[in-house]
Amino acid sequence: MVIAYFVASALVVDGVEKPVTTTRLLTDTRFERGFIVWSPKPGSHVQQGMIRPDEAAPKPVWGLAQWHSRYTLAEVAPERMPGGAIRFSDGAKSVTFFPKGSEADIALGLQGNLEYEGKAPKPGDPTCRHGTRGSAVLRSVSIGEGDGFAT
């Protein structure tokens, strides 16, 4: 989990200490709102849909890239797993959201055998950028809280 804050206890202006506020820089650090799903087409940044473990939650603030994939997570239905986790899978890739109190917030998975049609990619071949090798790209699309860092 990553949480970033700008913290200051006081701001000194012309020798006078003035109180300041703390503003959270990143929102939804547990990914509870889900993800905006971007197109798998390389070089494009086109929204295809959303995956949301809770449809009542506000719109996602994070994007999920799935470059070079032959499949898309954009319109898959959620699957409730034993223990309360919610999983989205297109057969080749998956995103699992775990309930609060779990050891992890999310898990990203890739079925390389299906994605690569049973063959290992050769050097220079495009490879799916999701999950394995830590290559999933999570991109903040909105900071949200506050207009400034200190007021």
Describe the structure.
By secondary structure, the chain is mainly beta. The chain contains 1 helix and 12 strands; from the N terminus they run E-E-E-E-E-E-E-E-E-E-E-H-E. It has one helix at 112-115, and strands at residues 5-6, 10-13, 16-19, 23-24, 35-38, 47-51, 62-64, 79-80, 86-89, 93-97, 106-110, 138-140. A hairpin with an 8-residue loop joins strand 5 and strand 6 (47-51). It is extended, with a radius of gyration of 19 Å.
Write the layout of secondary structure elements.
Layout: E1 5-6, E2 10-13, E3 16-19, E4 23-24, E5 35-38, E6 47-51, E7 62-64, E8 79-80, E9 86-89, E10 93-97, E11 106-110, H1 112-115, E12 138-140
Parallel strand pairs: 5-7
Antiparallel strand pairs: 1-4, 2-3, 5-6, 7-12, 8-9, 9-10, 10-11
Structure summarized in a few sentences:
The protein is mainly β and about 150 residues long. The chain contains one helix and twelve strands.
